[in-house]
Amino acid sequence: MTNEDYKLFEANTIAKYGIMPLTGCFLSPIATKALLYLIWKCNSETPGVFDTVKLRPSELCEALGYTKDKNRNFSHNLKKVCDVIQNVMLQPFKICSEDGDKYISFTWIQTMAVDLKNDSMWIRFNTDLGMYFGSELQKSFTVVKLKYLNRLKTSAAVILYPFFCRYAGMGSFNYGVEDLTILLTGDKQCDYKHLKRNYLLPAIEAINTWTDIRVEFIENKKERRVSSLSFSIYSEPGLPELESYMEFHQLKPSEVSAMNYDEDWMGAYRYNMAKQKYELLSVS
DNA sequence: GTACGCACCTACATGCCGTA
DNA sequence: TACGGCATGTAGGTGCGTAC
After folding, report:
1. Is the minimum distance from the CB of A224 to strand B below 7 Å?
2. CA of A105 vs C1' of C17, distance in Å?
3. Which nucleotide is closest to A157, CA to C1'?
4. A54 SS3 class
5. C-alpha to C-alpha distance for A8 and A201, rounded to whole angstroms
6. Please, what is the average pLDDT of chain A?
7. Which one of A55, A57, A112, A209 is separated from A31 by 20 to 30 angstroms, measured CA to CA?
């Protein structure tokens, strides 16, 4: 599997409103990333059709950043990830009309079968999922690279990275504080200071450090109250990419700014999703 | 060598309060 | 209304002994 394979195609509606609020209850970062991986895996094997997906639990575990290390906890994490998916089955997915008078509710996953001994699992998505995220995915979607998403740890960062990728092509855009509050907290009563300190700033710092985009924002005020935010999205390498680039060109940190960053180095490296770092390919 | 269970630690999420 | 400090509960990550 190559770096380019770690992509996710999201419907605009998911990117706009976020996968977590859409479920009616917030999923943990691990649950969100696991679910996104399953959606990506399913879409890569049966584009636009959401029915069933087969994969190895160890593959999912490694894709989420867990590796077999000296601490012998891989089997722990394997079961934990399976439990996380099982919990996703318990959390209903809810889509409401504008006024909230009409809604439809179902679960993401209908059935999961796991065989840890033979390292296999089988997931059946809810049969109604295809009506909302099936063929529509092929018409308009946002590309999110899972290798970047999976480096993020907080729920806010996991929500915001796909959100910013959705708008990356626009360069800059405005977004209302109330919409952003619902996106990140699910509670529009949450005040802006709480949103900024506990969600927005830590998430943007993580995104700027670990992903392929850089986000900056300014506050737009109506009188004293912050009413909306103007976000600017730039393409910029993450820290692991920058470190490998420096290693490849044998640059010191002070010399990086004088160079124009390129991705020539990537041919000499392989990205290890489990370890979440680049490994130099051996010359044969 | 690997799976499992347990304990511990860290980071995150949340709420409350005081100050400007 | 914005900002920051502090306390507390929880989720996730890590280390290690034991059993198979």
Report:
1. no
2. 46
3. B12
4. strand
5. 25
6. 74
7. A209
Closest CA to A29 of A246, A243, A271, A199: A199
Q: Is residue A272 within 8 Å of residue A278, measured between CB atoms?
A: yes
* Separation of A191 CA and C1 C1' (Å): 10
Residue A184: CA count within 13 A, CB half-sphere: 28
Distance separating alpha carbons of residues A156 and A202, to the nearest angstrom: 8
Residue-wise pLDDT for A71-113, tens only, equals 677 777 788 888 788 877 777 766 655 555 666 777 788 888 8
CA dihedral over A172, A178, A182, A185, signed as positive or negative: positive
Three-state SS string over A81-136 comes to HHHHHHHHHHCEEEEECCCCCCEEEEECEEEEEEECCCCEEEEEECCCHHHHHCHH
Token pair recorded at residue A153: 């740890």
In chain A, which stretches have pLDDT less than 70?
Answer: 1-26, 69-71, 93-103, 130-144, 186-190, 222-225, 274, 282-284
In this structure, the number of other CB atoms found within 10 A of the CB of residue A101 comes to 7
Question: Which domains, and CATH codes, for chain A?
Answer: 3-144 (1.10.10.10), 151-235 (1.10.10.10), 239-280 (no CATH)
Q: How far apart are CA A140 and CA A50, in angstroms?
A: 16
Place of tokens 């806010």: A156
Q: Which residue is nearest to nucleotide B15 (CA to C1')?
A: A194
